[in-house]
UniProtKB/TrEMBL annotation:
It comes from Fusobacterium vincentii ATCC 49256. Its EC number is 1.3.1.54. This is Precorrin-6X reductase. GO terms for molecular function: precorrin-6A reductase activity. The keyword Lyase does not apply.
Length: 248
């Protein structure tokens, strides 16, 4: 059986094409939301967060012969563990990595880790829009300027609750499904008088280009959380080429 590490739009795009050639697939996602992205496809799914030990058991239980990693570009530990599992079990590992965009905003800063980013943010004057996802929300809890920080998250009750549990007021929670157009980003940042946007480098799939163009037009500074460097084995940036190599 082929194991696809999913939960992203990339995984859905891959699966919609690949199941025409092989449907002996099980897809793992870290959340139920990730599984819902592919609920209309005729494949098995498993929704659970897995450490390396759980991955090893998953491979044995499902008689996995190949791992196809289409996880989020910032899911460093997932990819690292999956490559180690593939090596230990002597099975093939393939990675799909979305293309990075080739433009930079007029005003931006890069941070290699969330801790240094948080320290910088705490001393900013002006409203801030955070688009890092709900997992990082608790790290902002103790900031003295928390009332100036707005969080754009997925419209799920558990993610809204996570915000509320971390002292974030309802007026500072924007629960909407992206990615967003340039005009939508502009309207949102104008509505909340945003001066800084905190985001990840997620490429066109994650709406990065539209964020950059919107911020440039509004003179908003982008604060990037950079992803950890990782050297992938069998890495592809084109889904069709990946599939061609899988089926040959």
């Amino acid at each position: 059986m082929i194991w696809v590490i999913g939960g992203t739009k990339d995984s859905r795009d891959f699966l919609e094409k690949f199941i025409k050639y092989d449907n002996n697939i099980i897809v793992s996602t870290a959340t139920e939301y990730g599984a819902k992205l592919i609920e209309n496809l005729p494949i098995k799914t498993s929704s659970e967060k897995m450490d390396k030990g759980a991955m090893l058991k998953f491979v044995d239980d499902n008689k996995i012969t190949k791992i196809i990693d289409t996880s989020h570009p910032y899911a460093f530990e997932v990819s690292k563990n999956a490559m180690e599992v593939a090596e230990e079990k002597n099975i093939e590992y393939f990675r799909f990595e979305r293309e990075e965009i080739d433009i930079l905003p007029k005003k931006y800063k890069n941070f290699k880790d969330i801790e240094s980013l948080i320290k910088y943010v705490e001393n900013l004057k002006g409203n801030i829009l955070v688009t890092l996802g709900s997992n990082n929300v608790p790290l902002f809890r103790g900031l003295k300027n928390l009332s100036d920080i707005y969080f754009r998250i997925l419209p799920r009750w558990d993610m809204v609750k996570k915000c509320e549990d971390n002292n974030i007021l309802p007026k500072n929670i924007i629960a909407m499904q992206g990615p967003f157009t340039e005009n939508m980003n502009i309207a949102m940042m104008e509505q909340f008088n945003i001066k800084y946007l905190i985001t990840k480098k997620t490429g066109d799939t994650g709406g990065e280009r539209e964020k950059v163009s919107a911020c440039d037009k509004l003179d908003v500074e982008i604060i990037y959380l950079e992803k950890k460097e990782i050297i992938y084995k069998n890495c592809y940036k084109d889904i069709d080429i990946l599939i061609k190599n899988l089926i040959q």
